[in-house]
């Protein structure tokens, strides 16, 4: 069971690093954005609300990731706003859209509300 879990994590990590669903500049920008939000939150709100926010946010984003993973059959089928095309006989993720990004924004708002309510 542990081997299956590790294989799944490796599969997802390879997909996340290698997909072209988001432009490369966006992947880099969101990393800097997360660091900026982390530092700003630490300075503004302190450790407890910051850790609560990030724990909630990453958990909710994990749920969205798993929903897409399951519904797209490991990122090989089109579902909702996740578009897969066939290139050279192989499925390739092409784009993601409004539903995914809306879910990330809703996750951030829910996480913010939870972290503020608990602090």
Outline the structure in words.
With about 120 residues, this protein is mainly alpha-helical. The longest helix has 25 residues, at about 45-70. About 70% of the residues lie in helices and about 10% in strands. The mean pLDDT is about 95. It is built from four helices and two strands. A two-stranded antiparallel sheet has the order 1-2. The termini are far apart. The protein has helices spanning about 1-20, 25-45, 45-70, 100-119, and strands at about 85, 90-95. The chain has one domain (about 1-119).
* Helix amount: over 70%
Strand order of the largest sheet: 1-2
Spans of at least 5 consecutive residues with low confidence = none
Question: What's the main sheet like?
Answer: 2 strands, antiparallel
**Number of extended strands:** 2
Mean pLDDT: 93
**Number of alpha- plus pi-helical segments:** 4
Write the layout of secondary structure elements.
Layout: H1 2-18, H2 24-45, H3 47-71, E1 83-87, E2 90-95, H4 98-118
Antiparallel strand pairs: 1-2
Helix pairs in contact: 2-3, 3-4
What would a concise description of this structure say?
This protein is mainly α and 119 residues long.
Note the main attributes of this structure.
119 residues; 4 helices; single chain; two-stranded antiparallel ribbon; mainly alpha
